[in-house]
Structure formats: structure tokens, C-alpha cells
Amino acid sequence: MVLLKGFVKPEDQIGMVRMCRQLGKGPGGFYRPSFKNGAKLNLWTMSLGKNWDPTLRSYGPTRPFDGAQAPTIPDAFKMIAQTANSTASEFPQINPDICIVNYYTNSGKLGLHQDKDESESSLTKGLPFISISIGDTAEFLFGDTRDQDQATKINLESGDVLILGGESRLLFHGVSHVKTNTAPNVYYAPKLGVKARK
Ligand SMILES: O=C(O)CCC(=O)C(=O)O
Ligand SMILES: [Fe+2]
């Protein structure tokens, strides 16, 4: 696991927020997904490149509930993710074809989970996912099990990039809470997590 503090320049953070707002309002934009039992997750999400269905736990070109096609991943997002990826030279380099954008309001959170719905070959090669945080600081948990009490806590601040690859690719991770009004600029949204992967 590699954490690049303050990796994304302030002007690029603002550009990403603008782009997410614009894409989020269009077809395939932000929605609040549900668990299998019908309860809603505490975040808004959209998938770029390919749609990730949190209920089916699989990828496809369109999303089942409204038929919307996943918008294309903006080049600027790919560029930032790939530059961060090459900085963490211990991990293989990817050309991301999936980007999931999570938008957390003040009460937003995400339980401990593994990201393991990517292709078999992506997982066995330990291809990294690259997670860019923008906006309010999030308390991020990670560990070897789903046990929240044993997890390590770190703050993900605006502009931080976290890369999980190789041995750390299947770590359990989640967002315990968002620290309201900690973003460096009022223009920024509450926390946005932009995750690029293959
Ligand atoms: O938003 C984040 O920083 C993490 C999100 C996450 O783990 C996921 O979407 O699988
Ligand atoms: Fe995840």
C-alpha cells in the first residue's frame, strides 16, 4: 500500500470536482445504491468506463436500473491516476478502464470490504487500484480482516492518493466517517473518492 500525501495539485482537484459534478448530473450519473436487503448505502456513486453493479457485484456496459451507459473516464482522471501509479514503482502500471466515483455527504461512510470483483487476471497479478480523495478529510480504515476494532485508521485528505496493489490489493478497507468542513477550499465537495482500476 502506498499513500501519496497531497499528490493532486489544488487546481487539478478543482478540475476533478467540476468534472464529477457535471458527469454526476448527466446520464449514468450519481445515484444512491442499495444493499441486497434493500437498505441504502451511505454514499452516492457513479461508474465511469464500465458500470459496477453493487448488488450483482459485477461489471457491465450499462446499469440495470435505468439502462444508462457508463460515461467515458475523463483523460485528466486517467492521467492523474497513471502518474501516481508510476510514482509507486513497486506496483505494475495499469491503464485504467474502470473508475468509480463515490460521493460522501456529511454522514457518508462505507463498511470494511475487499475490492475483489475485478477480473481474475487483474487480481492474481495484483494490479493496483488507485484511489484519489478530494474534499473533506475521511477517516479511512484498513486491515487484514473485516474487524473494525483491529483496523488501522488513517486520514485521507484532499489531494491524497492511495494505491493498493500487489500484496495489499485485497486488504479490507472502508470509510468510517467524513470530517465535516475540513476541505481546504469551500468550492470542494464533501468527500469524493475516485478510484481507477483495471
Ligand atoms: O471512497 C474511497 O476513498 C474508498 C471507496 C472504496 O473503497 C470503494 O468504492 O470500493
Ligand atoms: Fe473499496
What's the gist of this structure?
With 198 residues, the protein is of the alpha+beta class. The protein has a single domain (2-197), classed as Sandwich (Jelly Rolls), CATH 2.60.120. It contains three helices and twelve strands.
Protein model, in words:
The longest helix is centred in the first third of the chain and has 16 residues, at 10-25. Strands 1-10-7-12-5-2 form a 6-stranded antiparallel beta sheet, covered by helices on one side. Strands 6-11-8-9 form a 4-stranded antiparallel beta sheet, with no helix packed on it. A two-stranded antiparallel sheet has the order 3-4. It is 17% helix and 30% strand. The chain has a single domain (2-197), classed as Jelly Rolls (Sandwich). The mean pLDDT is 93. Strand 3 (51-53) and strand 4 (58-60) form a beta hairpin. It has 198 residues and is an alpha+beta fold. The protein is built from 3 helices and 12 strands. The two termini are 17 Å apart. The structure holds 2-oxoglutaric acid and fe (ii) ion. Fe (ii) ion binds next to loops. 2-oxoglutaric acid binds at residues 100, 102, 110, 115, 131, 133, 173, 175, 193, 195.
Helix percentage range: 10-25%
Secondary-structure-based class equals: alpha+beta
Give me the CATH architecture, please.
Answer: Sandwich
Overall pLDDT: 93
Helix-strand string: EHEEEHEEHEEEEEE
Distance between the termini: 17 Å
The largest sheet, given as strand count, sense and whether it forms a barrel, is: 6 strands, antiparallel
Number of domains: 1
Shape: globular
What CATH calls the topology is: Jelly Rolls
Strand ordering within the main sheet: 1-10-7-12-5-2
Rg of Cα set: 15 Å
CATH class: Mainly Beta
Count of helical regions: 3
Low-confidence stretches: none
Bound molecules: 2-oxoglutaric acid, fe (ii) ion
The CATH superfamily bears the name: Alpha-ketoglutarate-dependent dioxygenase AlkB-like
In terms of DSSP E residues, the strand content is 25-35%
Number of strands: 12
